[in-house]
Amino acid sequence: MKVSNDQSGAVPMRMSELSRRSGVSVTTIKYYLREGLLPAGRRLSATQAGYDEDHLRRLRLIRALTGVRGLPVSAARDVLGALAEHAGDTHSLLGLTLGSIRLAEESADDSPEPAEVDSLIQELGWDVHKSAPARSALAETLTSLRTLGAPLDRRALLSYAHLAERTAVLDLDQLDGIEDPLEVAERALLLTVLLEPALLALRRLAQENESAQRHAES
Amino acid sequence: MKVSNDQSGAVPMRMSELSRRSGVSVTTIKYYLREGLLPAGRRLSATQAGYDEDHLRRLRLIRALTGVRGLPVSAARDVLGALAEHAGDTHSLLGLTLGSIRLAEESADDSPEPAEVDSLIQELGWDVHKSAPARSALAETLTSLRTLGAPLDRRALLSYAHLAERTAVLDLDQLDGIEDPLEVAERALLLTVLLEPALLALRRLAQENESAQRHAES
């Protein structure tokens, strides 16, 4: 194996090795480089660049965001950008992360009813920004359910919100005891975004169990 | 407006009226017809078909599944198929609905660890099928978090699962008091699939609030 002449720091990886270790194809790595998701490697020669452990870690994060979480590449880039800019301030990072990710496909012809969500948040006493995109995502879903003749009543909505409060406490508890600010930020991002499919999966399994229990009783 | 000569039942809608009332373009309606998401209209003449309120309701449901929930058309078709086949049996419908929807993009090169999920479900005492796709979705996320150096410990996972249990009780409570079996089935589907973005939105709002509280304290 050819070793780079540039000996500053660890021996850089060639793209083929980065591909092998990350499990991401060379074609896809080149795409991420073009799209700005992955920072350029260190120039080794006119035709060769070198990559390091940061590139590997970043590739794993991109794979997690676009694969498991199913985010479009543009949204993943926004998340990674927010992570880099606000590494030291978990609260800002959380806000920006939530701000940069769409919760669902846009449905432009729906007419959300933010008033209902505003009054819910007021009743809960939650301290959240007026512009949080989760507000409109919530309003859109409530409108859809109503349009389809299956509206969610206020009492049920409040009960779901109280369970969300307890979930959020658990979420933020996961950040306790981590010292390094960058690690706190990255963990916050992972918990916010990556845990979503796991929470939905747990809900579905719990529904199946609950349905089985009620079915057996009747 | 030209009225059909066929007078069996209500006056059928022409496609233009179906488009206007549903807010879905004629092009998109034709696409749903081709893809089998929407049943064919009643033949009025060699070139005209008539549509009824069932078509309108079905179109709204397709819009909700593909728009708000962001499901691919093929997954929406599976969901609608399951709904039609198992209208009378809520428990089977739930099982099939959960079975027909992927929770996240496939990430074929991940190696899920079903043993961890199996033992979790055993510890919880949940009655769920061995083949429930939510199992592998959960395993994939846990593997991703571990790969990224942010594993979720067993105690936290159990806490999230207990919150999911309470969410599922709320979910199934929403079906109480509905008599019509088809309505029970449709409501179950809507709650399972459509409520997901709302629950994730509530979690993000609750996180922002919880983060603001902890930030203010320190």
Q: What is the structural class of chain A?
A: mainly alpha
Average pLDDT confidence of chain A is 78
Seen as an oligomer or otherwise, the chain set is: homodimer
Q: Helix and strand succession of chain A? A: HHEEHHHHHHH
Give the overall shape of chain A, derived from the CA principal axes.
elongated
Number of helices of chain A: 9
Domain HTH merR-type (chains A, B): 12-82
Keywords (chains A, B): DNA-binding
Pfam family, one (chains A, B): MerR_1
GO molecular function (chains A, B): DNA binding; DNA-binding transcription factor activity
Descriptive notes:
2 copies of one chain form a homodimer. With 218 residues, the first copy, chain A, is mainly alpha-helical. Chain A has a domain at 69-217. The first copy, chain A, contains 9 helices and 2 strands, in the order ααββααααααα. In chain A, a hairpin with a 5-residue loop joins strand 1 and strand 2 (49-50). Chain A is elongated. Chain A starts with 14 loop residues before the first helix and ends with a helix. The model of chain A is unreliable at 1-8 and 100-111 (pLDDT under 50). At the A-B interface, helix 3, helix 5, helix 7, helix 8 and helix 9 of A face helix 3, helix 5, helix 7, helix 8 and helix 9 of B.
Descriptive keywords:
homodimer; 218 residues; mainly alpha; two-stranded antiparallel sheet; DNA-binding (chains A, B); MerR_fam (chains A, B)
